[in-house]
Amino acid sequence: MSIMKESSESLNFIEHIIEEDLAAGFSKENLRFRFPPEPNGYLHIGHAASICLNFGLGEKYNAPVNLRFDDTNPSKEEQEYVDAIKRDIAWLGFRWANECYASDYFQQLHDWAVELIKKDKAYVDQQTSEQIASQKGTPTTPGTDSPYRNRPIAESLELFERMKNGEFPAGSYVLRAKIDMASPNMHMRDPILYRIINAHHHRTGNKWCIYPMYDWAHGESDYIEQVSHSLCTLEFKAHRELYDWYLDQIVDPAKLRPKQREFARRNLSYTVMSKRKLLELVQKKVVAGWDDPRMPTISGLRRRGYTPTSIRKFSDLAGIAKRDNVTDVSLLEFCIREDLNQTATRVMGVLNPVKLVITNYPEGKSEILHLENNPEEANSGTHEVPFSRELYIEREDFKEDGGKNFFRLSLGNEVRLKSAYIIKGESVVKDASGEIQEIHCTYDPESRSGSGTEASERKVKGTLHWVSIAHAIKAEVREYDRLFLDEAPDAHEEKGFLEFVNPNSLNVIQEAYLEPFLAKATLEDKFQFQRLGYFALDPDSNEGKLIFNKTVGLKDTWAKQNTQAPAQNQPKPSAQPQSQPQKKAINEIQQVGKKLTNLSGDKLETAMNSIREFSEEVSYEELEPLFGTAVKKTGTRIAVVLALGVLLKKGQAKNQSIEEFIASAKADDNEILRAEAEKLD
């Protein structure tokens, strides 16, 4: 069943684009989508947005969706990643129409490139990558032509053939499209079409020594597959002009021409989403692997106990946006709580045990009680749990003198044991250091839960979970916390993201005690350990040793424990949570601005365009205080100039503060800042 809502009111902007195309006469039978991962890492929760969008559209419109691996860089791609990607998508519940690979089209892409050379629209360049980059210019200044830009066609054809035949080392030659070195879009300044990579490809072996760049392979692969709507993340918006130029060179007017449209990448707080950074976490053994339950990968979330339903629900609630934003990780945690509250079997386990002896319960006796599997599900039934004289309870559930605000077990006070009896604390046994070894109590034999006696109806303030010592099974329990302590660990100019790793993100409990029902747990089962949280069996388990991962706690306690995190009230599981508020546009501008001086080329252009988009939502009152930004904070000052330019175009009148700020920017040593400020005269 599609997760997309059917009412017109709930359409996201991508669906509006499709509906407009259909209304304009585009045939519904020609709709075709694709999900195009590069197999250079495992999919993460950010990719789930694109997966759910593309496959959700396929379900909504009954249209085919291809799974296409953009495998154009053999030095970073592996079959392991291909297998993991297919496994994750299938686990999420989606089915692809065709399994495709960009490598399937290598010959066609090569042949089209040869045609470009013959039409004098591509040439072989033998400069270094540094030389080519230095000639690209800046977003405000045109580039300069390569000395090989007018190389004779026959010479480029010969060199390209020799590149294909493996006669040259990597980096010695590239094939570039001949477009416009003065284009305001830096992606159009003679982009590279092919480079030499002497590496074994996971599918084509050593057949090819040249490999197409992503921009060349992307649109042409869409065209070959007759994809109608090529949906990309926002950083490809500036690439759209190049996407269309490449199609212009080869498209047959009688065939469907793909349309590229962009949506915002999904970012999650307290997380990094870059596959390069996730790989670094794996390689430096900060985590145990791509499927470590602390990782934001779909494999890691699955191992931790997340369900396909929860991830699809999260994607639905987080929505499809037109601009990059950060979604609070607590929304993801809400979605898994809501799902597991409805589906997880209730069981009992004790993670920090202390022995409890019921002194008036007959020695050697045990009885079978019944624990409700799930109170949220009417026909979930019950399962048996053994009860005896000696039990384990949580050590923190007992205090000798609890005081009036302690509603668990203390001396002289009563509590109920879950689905069992009411007990009263009587005395303790301590070791030589004063640590409690045993709690002695008495029980009311007439108070068994569900027995219908007057005593069973008696109300006490606390209910504790427990396990029978004689029947308990021992297990390892792994409790997880957020991997990073900072809300945006990779957004700091002066610090690397690894400096924000949470040293307490994993707590391993070697000897937890669980009720015997859990001995038959499978990897697909989900459990609520009463009063503790939701847990799932880990694949490391074997017949002799059970290992359970804590998926999520029963409540969101992070905001209370961490003052840096924005406080919020956790909705009740039955409630519909509101998506997390986006950061104010002025804050986004400052955040992007901090990074500007570390960027160049395409990335710089993309960042500057992003600032201009955010500036559409900024008022002069918000921007004016940033005119006083310190001179050394060049990136922020560039961002302010860009934002000011947008405001002036929208009708903001110049005043003395604006004039003074523009004058100071024009006098700055930074070329980009000066150039952007001069545009405001």
Automatic annotation (TrEMBL):
Region (Disordered): 128-149, 563-584
Gene field: glnS
Biased composition (Polar residues): 128-144
Organism, as annotated: Algoriphagus taiwanensis
Keyword vocabulary terms for this entry: Aminoacyl-tRNA synthetase, ATP-binding, Cytoplasm, Ligase, Nucleotide-binding, Protein biosynthesis
Motif placement: 'HIGH' region: 37-47
Keyword Nucleotide-binding set for record: yes
Chain intervals with Low complexity compositional bias: 564-584
Compartments it resides in: Cytoplasm
Top EC class of this enzyme: ligase
Record protein name field: Glutamine--tRNA ligase
Domain tRNA synthetases class I (E and Q) anti-codon binding span(s) in chain numbering: 463-538
UniProt similarity note: Belongs to the class-I aminoacyl-tRNA synthetase family.
Chain ranges of the Glutamyl/glutaminyl-tRNA synthetase class Ib catalytic domain: 31-341
Quaternary structure annotation from Swiss-Prot or TrEMBL: Monomer.
Membrane-spanning parts: none
Motif 'KMSKS' region, residue numbers: 272-276
Catalytic reactions on record: tRNA(Gln) + L-glutamine + ATP = L-glutaminyl-tRNA(Gln) + AMP + diphosphate
Domain of life the protein comes from: Bacteria
NCBIfam families linked to this entry: glnS, PRK14703.1
InterPro entries xref list: aa-tRNA-synth_I_CS (IPR001412), Gln-tRNA-synth (IPR004514), Gln/Glu-tRNA_Ligase (IPR050132), Gln_tRNA_ligase_bac (IPR022861), Glu/Gln-tRNA-synth (IPR000924), Glu/Gln-tRNA-synth_Ib_cat-dom (IPR020058), Glu/Gln-tRNA-synth_Ib_codon-bd (IPR020059), Glu_tRNA_lig_a-bdl (IPR020061)
Pfam families: tRNA-synt_1c, tRNA-synt_1c_C, tRNA-synt_1c_C2
Binding site for ATP: 38-40, 233, 273-275
Chief site of localization: cytoplasm
